[in-house]
Amino acid sequence: MLNKKVAQALNEQINREMYSAYLYMSMSAHANNIGLKGFANWFMSQYHEEMFHAMKMYEYVLRQGARVKLLAVAEPPAEYASPLDMFTKTLEHERYITASLNTLMDLAIKEKDHATKIFLEWYITEQVEEEDNDNDIITELTLIGDNPHALLMLDREFATRAVTVPTDFSKGVEAAAKAAGE
Ligand code: OFO
Question: Which among 14, 20, 87 is the best mutation to test ligand 1's pocket, defined by most ligand atoms within 8 Å of the CB?
Fold first, then answer.
């Protein structure tokens, strides 16, 4: 059972996760357009991660007997100045997501909603990993600078990133996550 405030805040967070997916989908398209297929693969994998985050929360709201209310998803930017710009914006966005999850956690604590608090811990732990990865990539891209050879090497490495989260939610999100070992 979720109280109204918590249910609304969770629905808003579903929207933020959907926007995250949309943002990385846009970055994937841009990377494709500039010939960086490995970067396109990296961002499309990130898109799937974010869809999983959104759907995991969607299922939680439903399982708690509350209403899912899907809000309009904003338009993400379509152009980026450079690969470094894409990752700088990725890190900026993830910091914003971390802050929104912290606010959500504060609300769950204030409302004494222990189930939601436990549920949100998974997201907050994920954010530490995401920000750390983004920081590492920004450091690499800064070192690469204007060296096209080094950039192509990183592009090849990014081409090997595989999707590890479930992508088919027709039988339920948690069931799919268990089957995928998440
Ligand atoms: Fe990129 O993070 Fe979702 O939660």
Answer: 20
Q: Which atom of ligand 1 is nearest to the CA of 101?
A: 4
Q: Is the pLDDT of residue 179 over 90?
A: no
* Cα–Cα nearest to 84, from 159, 134, 126: 134
User: Which pLDDT score is estimated for 146?
Assistant: 94
Rounded Cα distance, 64 and 111, in Å: 15
What residues are in contact with ligand 1 under a 6 Å CB criterion? Answer: 17, 20, 50, 53, 94, 97, 123, 126, 130
Which atom of ligand 1 sits closest to the CA of residue 94?
A: 1
Domains of the chain in sequence order: 4-174 (1.20.1260.10)
Nearest by Cα to 120 from 137, 134, 105 = 105
Q: Which ligand 1 atom sits closest to the C-alpha of 46? A: 1
84: pLDDT confidence band, cut at 50, 70 and 90? very high
At residue 22, the pLDDT reads 98
Burial class (CB in 10 A: 0-12, 13-18, 19+), 63: middle
Spacing, Cα 98 to ligand 1 middle (Å): 8
pTM value is 0.96
